[in-house]
Design a protein that fits this description.
mainly beta; Immunoglobulin-like; 3 domains; 7-stranded mixed beta barrel; 6-stranded mixed β-sheet; 5 helices; 28 strands
Length: about 450
């Protein structure tokens, strides 16, 4: 958006009453764009050499107003610089819905940037031959900071045969104000161009669209691109859906017909990670949105004693994490002191499970000193909101020897008590005799009571 328009809008927004009731209002959304010149981009990538400044004016877009748009003025061509003016596209939005219009309108004042690129849109040969009097452009807009992405297909409205003034490079008729008049006939959007989910969870990838009356939805296709390979995930054609990935589903049919082609993926694995391409095909147009899906697994951390020798060796096991990068640090803290980094830890070789997660171990020889020390293993990973810490107390050698002595004496005392108890039990229990044939208890009577 131009500097004058941004300043005006920001001043109006700052003075608005927060308590005002929100209602719909039609306003002009003005975006600074780049136009990829005709013939220089088809089949290739745009570069600074074949891009010129352009202005996109979305006329009378409905947005929610909380009172902050009071006094907001619509776009006037007279506000455009006279020297080297940009190519200006006026686009009517009467035929389709424009999603995220409010975010686009307030982008500058919200300290966001909108990347906007306009290029020629080429129909299939048989379709283009049937409508030779028009030209088409596609506009791709992306809001910074992981904001929504919107694509618009625009059809020109001017008639070159009625002696209208033509644009010097586009060779298209201009309006009396010097703009290229167009109408938006198809739009695609995703509100989540980048998503991150934990391993085993379920994901919903948003993909929406809107098309002008008279166009028919013919195909929906989701594909996954990852590490140089691609595969079909889900396809829908004329009422029939087919899932290539187990469990993948689209929104119910009535939602699809209303413009929601979102993909649902249950029980994510690491094989689900990659770039998902949502492609919508109508009876005349085709467009796509790309969504990056990242899958993460949080590490499990366990700190233990590797051996009983002096000095002791501590081992910190970090298991089941993804992606690969993980940071492990050790600190040592004496009683009453502050944690001090310990730099001489060693690491095992990296291990990878069958499902693709990683594990590694870090070991450290503890030096408890004369008073003992607390050792802490800290693990930092992208899947964690904050690092995982686990600690162990390393006792000084004197305490370990004393503890061993106490344990030894206690063991001897316990054995003695058990021995005395056993002897007492044997003394008061019936005698047991054993010969080569049987084992029995002596229940014979005293000698004085035996028969002669």
């Amino acid at each position: 958006m131009g500097a004058e328009w941004c300043l005006l809008l920001c001043l109006v927004l700052s003075g608005a009453a927060d308590a005002a009731e929100r209602q719909w209002r039609a306003v002009d959304v003005v975006l600074d764009c780049f136009l990829v010149e005709e013939g220089k981009h088809r089949g290739g990538f745009a570069s600074n050499k074949n891009m010129v400044k352009a202005l996109l004016v979305l006329r009378q877009v409905p947005v929610l107003d909380d009172g902050s748009l009071e006094g907001f003025a619509n776009f006037q061509m007279s506000s455009v610089a006279k020297d080297n003016p940009p190519v200006t596209f006026e686009a009517s939005v009467d035929l389709v819905q424009i999603p995220h219009a409010e975010a686009l309108l307030h982008a500058d004042c919200s300290e966001k940037e909108v990347t906007c690129e306009i290029s020629r849109y080429f129909l299939q040969a048989r379709q283009e031959a049937a409508v030779q009097t028009a030209a088409w452009f596609i506009t791709n807009m992306q809001l910074s900071g992981g904001g929504p992405s919107v694509s618009l297909v625009m059809k020109t409205l001017g008639d070159a045969e009625n002696k209208a003034v033509l644009h010097p490079t586009l060779n298209l008729p201009l309006s009396p104000q010097g703009t290229v008049l167009t109408a938006v006939e198809f739009q695609m959007t995703t509100s989540t161009p980048s998503l991150t989910f934990l391993l085993g969870s379920s994901a919903s990838l948003h993909c929406g669209f809107s098309m002008a009356p008279g166009l028919d939805l013919t195909r929906v296709e989701w594909r996954l691109q990852h590490k140089g390979s691609g595969q079909l995930v889900y396809s829908w054609t004329t009422g029939q859906g087919q899932a290539k990935r187990q469990g993948a589903t689209l929104e119910p049919e009535q939602h699809l017909m209303a413009g929601d082609a979102s993909l649902n993926l249950p029980s994510l694995t690491l094989k689900d990670e990659g770039s998902y391409v949502c492609q919508i095909t109508t009876s005349l147009y085709q467009a796509q949105q790309i969504i990056q899906l990242h899958v993460q697994a949080s590490p499990k951390v366990r700190l233990g004693l590797a051996n009983e020798a002096l000095p002791p060796t501590l081992i910190c096991n970090i298991a089941g994490y993804y992606p690969l990068d993980v940071t492990v640090t050790w600190t040592r803290e004496e009683l009453g002191g502050v944690p001090v980094p310990v730099p001489d830890a060693s690491f095992s070789s990296l291990r990878q499970s069958s499902e693709g997660t990683y594990s590694i171990s870090s070991s450290l020889t503890a030096e408890p000193g004369s008073a003992g020390a607390t050792y802490t293993c800290q693990v930092t990973h992208i899947s964690l909101d904050e690092p995982i810490e686990t600690s162990a107390w390393a006792a000084p050698p004197e305490q370990r020897t004393m503890a061993f002595g106490v344990l030894f004496v206690s063991s001897l005392f316990l054995l003695a008590v058990l021995y005395l108890g056993l002897q007492r039990w044997r003394a008061t229990s019936p005698k047991v005799y054993q010969d080569s044939e049987a084992l029995w208890v002596d229940t014979r009577l005293p000698q004085s009571k035996k028969k002669a």
